[in-house]
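**User:** Hello, beginner here. Are you able to go through the protein record under this note? It all follows right here:
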Amino acid sequence: MEEEAVVPIAREKFARLGNGAARPPRALFPHVKVESIHTVPPMNLELIHKTALISGSTKGIGFAIASQLAAEGARVIINGRSDQAVASAIDRMTRAMPEASVEGFAGDLSTLAAVEALLRRFPAVDILVNNLGIFEPKPFEEIPDEDWRQFFEVNVLSGVRLSRAYVSGMKQRNWGRIIFISSESAIQIPVEMIHYGTTKTAQLAVSRGLAESCAGTGVTVNAILPGPTRSAGVEDFVTQISGGQPFADFEKEFFKSVRPTSLIKRFATPGEVAALVAFVCSPVASAISGASLRVDGGVVRACF
């Protein structure tokens, strides 16, 4: 088991009004070149003083979510499996946003031991984003029991354990946000990754059931369903299977033959996914709970 790596950064300071009420500036980090960390400009989502844990957040969609929440003034906890990955992600974020409040936890949160270590360091959070996940194309006949178990441990049980650990405190404080990063593959099971799609569907069930258990409280639980997204993992995958084909050419062919129902005909960016997640995490989204929200570029041919 890898040791924890925690790197505290100074908190954002903001002005006070004459009546003593705290008010965040319109843009916490107006100087940030947000495209460098795949975020959109801050939206003033009232997240100052909120603590957010994002599992699997050293790169890709997870890192974009952490960056967007930090840009909104939240204190974020970045998670990765190794000290090096966590330290690199924190360095990248703080270079772009020197005033960001960011800490790190190195550990495999698909394991109970790592979750227990996490709780000793961070016994309470306001926002939990269950982003940790794996995928691998493989014919159904070649998927052994071991792979099925691994996919459920990482994609499903990691979020179950973390949610179970933090939801009681959220209920006691009468405020909290739990987000499961699922996928459009939860609705349209990919024939090349049936085990992956099955775990993404399971996340929807857990999310809705947990939301029901939080009825009447200030805690909301939702699932976000990204479509094909140009994350670091997808770029690596494309490199492996494209045979040296330029990404633009691969993208065009992909949306012609593999995901022809896409309405935007391109991969989404991690920042586009992160923008929706940040909104759902915020106090201004308090009426949204028990929902499965798609940011899939219209891949799923359905109105709901």
Observations:
- The first helix runs from residue 60 to 71.
- The first strand starts at residue 51 and ends at 54.
